[in-house]
Amino acid sequence: MKEESRGGNSPEKLNSGITPDQFTQSTLVFVYRHLPSWRDDPQRPAEQAEDKLNLQLCKFLDIQARNSFPMVHFNHEEYQQGRRSVDLSASPTQTTIIDARVYSIYDPILVFECKRLPAPTKAREREYVTGGKKRSGGIQRFKLDLHGHKLDLVAMIGYVQGNTPKHWHTTINRWISELSKGQSTDGCVWDKSEKLGGFREDVAHGTASCQSIHGRTGKGVSSKVGIRHLWVVMSEN
Question: Tag placement on the chain: N or C end, fewer CB within 10 Å?
Answer without folding.
Answer: C
